[in-house]
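Incident log, support desk, overnight shift.

02:14 A customer reports that sequence design results differ from what the structure should imply. Their input is reproduced verbatim below. On-call engineer (initials T.W.) acknowledged and began investigating.
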């Protein structure tokens, strides 16, 4: 029996009915040298926290921007305040423009005056969302300006009265 095989391995091989060979020992040594990065207590083997693992996963998958947009919607009340959040909700984000639907045109106008502060807060808190501007719109009303045969002008005025 060769001397370079550990006694425990040689005993195992004898019990299994296999004879230890010098060639197998060389192969094992070469494989052990190739597997240095899999050894315990080497560099890069420290355990990572679940937050670090999820952050790496989202960055590698390219989900950072989408998650930042969803965080923006979920934390809208923290950014603008409770009173403003009751009267204005984000409805769309496209091409760096966040569209916010307001309860009334008065709220939309007041928030337009505060636009610079809101955009600054959004850019600071959610840089991955890529918000460059905010557009405030009033309540949804029916539009008469649609379809292939729409004509210019004021449209019907005595419909609701």
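02:41 Re-run completed on a clean worker. Output:
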């Amino acid at each position: 029996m060769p001397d370079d095989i550990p006694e425990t391995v040689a005993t195992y091989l004898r019990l299994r009915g296999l004879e230890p060979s010098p060639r197998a020992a060389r192969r094992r040594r070469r494989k052990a040298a190739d597997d240095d990065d899999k050894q315990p207590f080497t560099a890069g083997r420290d355990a990572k926290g679940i937050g670090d693992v999820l952050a790496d996963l989202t960055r590698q998958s390219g989900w950072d921007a989408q998650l930042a947009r969803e965080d923006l919607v979920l934390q809208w009340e923290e950014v603008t305040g409770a009173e403003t959040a009751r009267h204005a909700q984000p409805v769309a984000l496209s091409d760096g423009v966040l569209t916010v639907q307001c309860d009334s045109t008065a709220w939309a106008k007041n928030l337009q005056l505060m636009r610079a502060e809101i955009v600054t807060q959004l850019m600071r808190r959610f840089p991955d969302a890529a918000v460059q501007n905010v557009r405030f719109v009033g309540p949804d009303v029916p539009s008469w300006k649609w379809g292939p045969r729409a004509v210019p002008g004021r449209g019907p005025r005595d419909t609701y009265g």
